[in-house]
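Protocol step 4 of 5: obtain the predicted structure for the target chain.
Materials: sequence only (see below). No template structures provided, no constraints applied. The aim of this step is simply to have a reference model before the mutagenesis design in step 5. Sequence pasted as it appears in the construct record:
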Amino acid sequence: MGLTLANSTPTLRVHIQDIRDELSRILLSRTFAKAATLRRLLEYIVSHWVETGSDGLDGYNLALAVFQRDYTFESALDPIVRVYTCRLRELLARYYVTEGVEDPLRISIPKGTYVPSISTAAQNTSQPARPENPIHIALLPFHIRNARCSQHKSYAMNILDHTMRHLSAVPAFRVLSRISASRVRAEMGEQLLGKHAPVDWLIEGAFTCGEEGFDVLVHLSEAKLGYILASRFYQHTFSDAHELSAQIAKELSHEILGFKKQCTSQPSFDGS
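Step 4 output (C-alpha cells):
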C-alpha cells in the first residue's frame, strides 16, 4: 500500500511500510535510547498520520494521547506539547547527521505543525544552513605505530580524509583541514592547540598494521581542557577505508552532538 505525500516537493509516492520501517529505525536508535517520551510522541504523530491520513492532529490531541492530560488542557497555560515537539525536531536532526545519515527516508516535523513530513535522502542533498555558533574540530594525523604500516600509509591517510569529509557534512561542524591542523600543531604543539587556536574538539588516532588488516585507536578530546570524551577501537581488513571512516564519523558526531546541550531553557528529554 502506498501513500501520496502532498507535503513533499515534488509530490512523492512512498509505501506505508517504508515509512513504518524508517520510524522503527529511529525508535530503536541510540540517539533516542534515553528519550522515552520523545519516542512516544514521534510514534504517535507518525502512526496517527499514516493510519488516518489526517492533517488535523493538534496540540490538544497530543496532550491527551501522549502526555496524559485531561480534557481541561489549555496550551496557553501548559506548554508541554510545544516543548517536547521542539526537542523532537532537534533530536531528529541529530539522528540524521549521525546514525541515520544513510537512511533512505527522512522524517521531520516542520515548525508550526504536528504533521510529519517525509522526504527521500536524494531530496536532502542540498547543504543545510550553518549555525551561528558552529563547533570547531581538528583532525590530527594518525600516528603510525609499527614499521609494517610504512607500506600502508595510504590507508591511514584515506581513513583520515574520508572521516574529515563525513564530519564536514554535519551542519553544526567546522572542520580544520588536515594540512592546517598539522601546521598549527607543529607551531604550537598539541598542548597549546586547543587553548590558542579556534578549536573545540581534537580527534587523534593511532594506526597499527598486522598481516591481514589494521587496528585504529581514535581519541576524541575537549581541546580547551584536554580531557578525553571518548575512545574508540576498530579492527579492519585492508579493504574499504570509506566504510570505516563513515563509522568513525558517525560515532564521534554522536558523542559531540550529545555533549552539546540543546534547548537549555527547557526541561530534560523525559522531564523526569
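Step 4 remarks: The radius of gyration is 22 Å. Confidence is low (pLDDT under 50) at residues 4-11, 125-129, 261-272.
Proceed to step 5.
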